[in-house]
Amino acid sequence: MTSTHARTGVWLIGARGSVATTVVAGWAAVTAGLHPPTGMVTESAAFASAHLPPLPSLVFGGHDTASCPLPRRAEQLTVAGVLPPGLAPAIAGELAAADARIRPGGPLPGDTRDDEELISAFAADLTDFRIGLDLERVVVVNVASTEPASGGVGLPPSSLYAAAALRAGCPYVNFTPSTGLRHPGLAEALAASGLPYAGQDGKTGQTLLRSVLAPMFQRRALAVRAWSGSNLLGGGDGAALADPAAAAAKNAGKERVLDEVLGPGVEGQVHIDDVPALGEWKTAWDHIAFDGFLGSRMILQTIWQGCDSALAAPLVLDLARLTARAHARGLTGPLEDLAFYFKDPDGTPPAALSDQYTRLLAFADRLGEDGR
């Protein structure tokens, strides 16, 4: 898996989690020709001229507070049905190489370092990664479990990592609903950084479907009276979202698309339930009550069943490549044209998936304009 192309680092926050492990395993499998790039939008023909970093040029590292090595985590995900049988041993070398580049995250229990010390340590890890492996640039992507809404003194962990990315001169992508760069304490450093960034909260299932269905009702002039949803999920994300504060942060993004497309006043809420027996899988159910011609009352119900890690991983690879190319082109500030990938995107992009995809294609054209 060598390439003469300049190499790009992808630094994953939560690097030993399910999503990160699936990202590295998927990258290795696709690069080796073992599996097709299913779900990777950037591998479609529309992006062929965007001059994105080739997949073989990517190099992975990251931060995590967990100790389970990636090869072992991949075995666990195979048992859970996330990774196909036989893949983990076939890419064991790539998994071990990425795992060797994972550094301790924090703050850990009993950690006496203050925010400044933690940020400096994390930034030093990023700089060592870039210089030590002679990488052209490093994109930091947060794929850690959702953290509760920040309410304490100091920066929450997601913002510590985001601050470290700014200090190390690394573009940043927040694939979670955690605070990250949106903490007011980072506003000045963010404005001065001159870096591109994108987020937040990857759109993988229920909200993806909502961003298609809500515009359908709006464009067909059908009055939606209520839209309720429920999520059943296990794994680490299910445990994290059992915390009401963390679930509230997640649900805010899910509800945003309805408010922006249909306007305020649509009844209903989203509920998230932790069901450990589901493991890495989730079920999302929506119940939509709407009025038709002459006030006839109708119902649409949807059920989405999927593996969140397998849905997220190709999007993470897309975002890392797109953000790296944006940085190479000298783009700065929020990458609103990447709203296609997020529940709660930066800026004020359109909420409908079709409109977001149109902007994404135009963005790809911009990325390829200089021909290099």
Structure summarized in a few sentences:
This protein is α/β, with parallel strands linked by helices and 372 residues long. The protein has helices at residues 18-31, 70-79, 87-90, 92-99, 115-132, 157-167, 187-193, 206-219, 235-240, 244-262, 308-328, 353-367; strands at residues 8-13, 58-64, 102-104, 137-142, 172-174, 196-199, 223-233, 270-274, 281-291, 297-307, 333-334.
Characterization of this structure:
- This protein is 40% helix and 19% strand.
- The chain has twelve helices and eleven strands.
- It has 372 residues and is α/β, with parallel strands linked by helices.
- Strand 1 (8-13), helix 1 and strand 2 form a beta-alpha-beta unit.
- The protein has a seven-stranded parallel beta sheet with strand order 3-2-1-4-5-6-11, with helices on both faces. Strands 8-7-9-10 form a four-stranded mixed beta sheet.
- The chain has helices at 18-31, 70-79, 87-90, 92-99, 115-132, 157-167, 187-193, 206-219, 235-240, 244-262, 308-328, 353-367, and strands at residues 8-13, 58-64, 102-104, 137-142, 172-174, 196-199, 223-233, 270-274, 281-291, 297-307, 333-334.
Please tag this protein with its features:
globular, 12 helices, 372 residues, seven-stranded parallel beta sheet, alpha/beta
